[in-house]
């Protein structure tokens, strides 16, 4: 997994808040052949940990959605 360049870092991230808590939706492109379940679990865990540590967000009020928008082959 790699991050996008600086100006594109926020693309694919939607954050919303309501009375039930905070929702973070991440739209990602994965490389063909990776274990999608594992990548999504690791990404979700990393985001949840970061929000808990830095922003002091209560994990019970946090929802993280991972949306796989495309699969990309290594040759592209």
Can you offer a commentary on this structure?
- By secondary structure, the chain is of the alpha+beta class.
- The chain contains one helix and three strands.
- It has one helix spanning 36-54; strands at residues 13-18, 21-31, 62-72.
- A three-stranded mixed sheet has the order 1-2-3, with helices on one face.
- The longest helix has 19 residues, at 36-54.
Give me a quick take on this structure.
The chain has 76 residues and is of the alpha+beta class. The protein has one helix and three strands. It has a three-stranded mixed sheet with strand order 1-2-3, covered by helices on one side.
Task: Please tag this protein with its features.
76 residues; 3-stranded mixed sheet; 1 helix; 3 strands; 37% strand
Arithmetic mean of pLDDT = 85
What separation lies between the terminal Cα atoms?
16 Å
Radius of gyration: 14 Å
Q: How many individual β-strands?
A: 3
* Strand order in the sheet with the most strands: 1-2-3
Count of DSSP H/I helices: 1
What percent of residues adopt helix (DSSP H or I)? 25-40%
Q: In terms of per-residue confidence, which ranges show pLDDT below 50 for 5 or more consecutive residues? A: none
SSE pattern = EEHE
Principal-axes shape call: elongated
Largest sheet: 3 strands, mixed
Output the structural class. alpha+beta
What portion of the residues fall into strands of 2 or more residues?
Answer: 35-45%
């Amino acid at each position: 997994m790699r991050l996008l360049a600086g100006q594109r870092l926020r693309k694919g991230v939607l954050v919303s808040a309501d009375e039930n808590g905070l929702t973070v939706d991440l739209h990602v492109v994965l490389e063909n052949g990776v274990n999608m379940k594992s990548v999504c679990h690791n990404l979700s865990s990393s985001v949840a940990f970061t929000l808990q540590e830095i922003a002091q967000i209560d994990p019970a009020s946090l929802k993280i959605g991972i949306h796989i928008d495309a699969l990309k082959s290594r040759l592209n």
